[in-house]
Write a structure and sequence with these properties.
14 strands; 2 domains; about 35% strand; alpha/beta; 5 helices; Elongation Factor Tu (Ef-tu), domain 3; Rossmann fold; six-stranded antiparallel sheet
């Protein structure tokens, strides 16, 4: 689809919050109503030396929020994130008018347990899920779901939303959150779980008594984690229809299937 005023919005960065030297969050004001479902992505673009560079990014904000929020990781060899990394509040970028994606929260299968697995910025769609469910819970529209979230990162500074989730687990009975750091020797103040996500996954699945017949599993982030996590879940009885995936995998363009959404974020 060509880049035209009919397909693009010119939006302003309203705020920026740096989690680490390579991970940051931004809030955008779309200026008009922007309709999406929790878990979908939006396509951002920045004018570069050879034209506009666009990439899809999972939306971290809830559809109930007026601003759009994104959690971004710098990919040094990427085309877009080095441009985004230099941008500050007041700078402008392009936003495709239509959100897309099938990595949405499962409310149709009858499974009420939800195992959310992610690495680093792969937490973004889960932030949208939880903020949306929190609003529904407060307004007594909550359907009795239970969420079990494991987030892996190299260092704790890359977790991005740890403070928000640590607070939420003390406020709501339906959310469990476990962050894990795979390079604790580079993070001497870290006192939480240690190890790669796939290395601790079976232990937590058993501890929480989760089974594929009543649990939808979601995997989002690094393709290596997703491949390893998928195989662990399948060995434990998860069927394909109970597994949803969103892979951040450069340099492929988005590929959509019934249960797999692959995108890039560079």
């Amino acid at each position: 689809m060509p880049l035209t005023p009919e397909t693009l919005l010119d939006v302003e960065i309203k705020w920026r919050s740096n989690a680490s030297s390579s991970h940051w969050r931004i809030g955008l004001d779309p200026g008009v109503p922007f309709t999406f479902k929790a878990g979908q992505y939006a396509t951002l673009g920045v004018r570069g030396p050879h034209g506009t560079v666009e990439r899809p990014y999972s939306i971290a904000s809830s559809p109930y929020e007026s601003q759009l929020e994104f959690f971004i990781e710098l990919v040094a060899e990427g085309e877009l994130t080095p441009l985004l990394h230099r941008m500050q509040p007041g700078d402008r970028l392009s936003l495709r008018k239509k959100a897309k994606g099938r990595f949405v929260f499962d409310v149709t299968s009858g499974r009420t347990n939800h195992l959310l697995l992610c690495t680093s910025t792969g937490i973004a769609p889960y932030v949208s899920y939880v903020r949306t469910l929190l609003r529904d819970w407060k307004h007594r529209r909550f359907a009795g779901h239970r969420l079990f979230l494991i987030q892996g990162a190299s260092r704790s500074s890359e977790l991005g939303y740890q403070a928000e989730f640590d607070r939420l687990v003390t406020e709501v009975p339906w959310l469990t959150y476990v962050p894990t750091v795979s390079r604790p020797w580079e993070d001497p103040t870290w006192k939480g779980e240690m190890g790669r996500l796939d290395a601790i996954l079976e232990n937590y699945v058993e501890r929480w008594s989760l089974r594929g017949r009543h649990t939808t599993a979601y995997l989002c982030g690094h393709p290596g984690m997703i491949e390893a996590g998928r195989e662990i879940l399948r060995r434990r009885g998860w069927q394909n229809e109970a597994i949803r995936e969103e892979t951040y995998s450069p340099p492929a363009r988005p590929i959509l299937t019934e249960t797999v959404f692959r995108t890039i974020a560079d």
